[in-house]
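To whoever is on call:

I kicked off a structure prediction for a single chain this morning and the downstream step that reads the tokens threw a length-mismatch warning. I double-checked the sequence; it's 600 residues and nothing unusual in it as far as I can see. Pasting both halves so you can look.
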Amino acid sequence: MKKKLVLFLAAVVLVLAGCVNTKSDVKKDESKPSSETKNTSIEILGMSTGEDDLNILRDQLTKNGFNVKLNIQPDYGSFTAQKDAGNYDLALTGWTTVTGNPDYAVRSLFTSDGDNTLFADEEADKLVEKASTQLKEEYTQTYKELEQLVVFDKAYIAPLYTSYKAQGVNNQVIDEKTLRLPKSRAAVWEAISFKDKAKNASQPLLAQQGISALTSLDPIKGNDGSINTLNTNMYVRLVNLTDDDEVVSDGSLSLNHAIADGSKDYYFLLRDDIQFASVKDKKAVDSGERVGAEDVKFSLDRAKDKNSVPDHRTYSLHESMKDISIVSDLKELDVKTTDGQSTVREQLEKGLDKKISTLVRDKTKANNGSGAYQIVKVTTEKPFPQVLNYLAHQSAGIVSKKQVESINTYDVAKYDVNKDIAYGDQKTITEGKDYNNALYASGPYILVSKNDYEAKFVKNPAYMKGTEYEPKISTITVKFIQDPESALSALRNGEIHILNGVPESKYDIVKKDDKLTLQQNKSNGVAYLAFNMKDRDVSKSVALRQSILYSINQEEIKNFYQGNKMNAVSTLSPLVETGLKLEADNNKAKELLKEYQSEK
């Protein structure tokens, strides 16, 4: 879907090198606010990791007549608490489209009932729904209309930039050929191998992430940087994304998948060589329970049901699914696929050693080697090919029906966080008196324990054994290092082997270190300011929000990052070329500010 820019980026940076500022060259604007405007106070909320961006924004807004207060929180938990309490006018945040499709980039944020909604606007709702039914050649115009509304007409968000992805690798320890850097998908742990393969079974791979407070190890209850990588590697899905955002069955629970003519029925032929891992004495063991169609149906039914769990944060991604069923009748597979040239059965049987002879509903009866298979069908409310991208998302991870139902015995409507225990609650896997790890992992790894400093994952002993997708490394330790400088030092000192998210200003340090390799790719990550749309002045005045919008100079931000950022208009920018662009306009910003002040 998108081509890599690993090699191309180097050329881009060289071209830009003659016209960008280094960090030390960026000068604070000394101009004073216009005497024609009275200063207006605004509060920007952010985290310490975004302090450079916050300082740039403060300078840009100050010169246009704003008194800027920065509310800088030390970590994601504190940031979220301040945001939930409404203690901000603007929040510096970001969004990464980890499914590689534009609907994901907008549905959760820009629809009135989205699980991460930023505002409520009926016109935006209609445009999101309209685009979701369209093919690419049609939806570009619809998404352009949506961007125009959300960014320029109503100024619900103020975009800052699109980022590149970059990771540093210890090339003395890791076999670089086994380490992928997908555009959207989280890290593919099962593919990684040490350079010395003899160490795969005896030494842990040392990875890193900044956030130690985990939202939930139940895949449908979180959609943020604390758990995306972890849950992606703990729960298998029906399909996966390639490094370039193409949907494939490779390395998933499906051997093959097919789309019936009309693009409403999606069929998945399941493999029979994955069993759930469980934890005993902080070790991963084979639970003896196979991952099957019953678990798929259970997992997807709860994924699309807003009320299946308290604080369901990913339901809007899966609302397009009308029904999930287990196919029993072979004749149903004789329908044509979308290409009109083959049947669903023919597509599902491609490359199989043994063709489909019978279909079984009971997962214990499946035996691919003898031709006995399970097939799951997903039916959407309307034609919606982008449903496959959502099924590749970590929130569509397959959980054990038996295990989850045995733990989630509480009444969802009366759920009490102080006394009820939910499947995936991080306190149950945190070392201490509450440790009672009841996780069942369908993916290549299972989280056996965590503390404030690290989380330990162990290979699922019953995951695609003997195939190319069987995990190479037995143990992975994820160290929680929030500060980017400290994380980079840990990489250089050998305390971690991989650093995903090398800061742009540190690319050269990694490149110049002989024992390190910098891997780069475009990302679907966009940084933006989200306006507080509840009970603040910015929630009531479009003119005030637009004044802030036009004060933002993306070129200055790009210069600060030495050209290692790209322009953005919205979360759609990495995915759809709408032709729109935000241009800083100080005069317009000051006029809009005066308009707002005259309203008061």
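Update from on-call: the warning came from a stale cache, not from the record. Cleared it. Sanity check on the structure: The chain has 18 helices and 21 strands.
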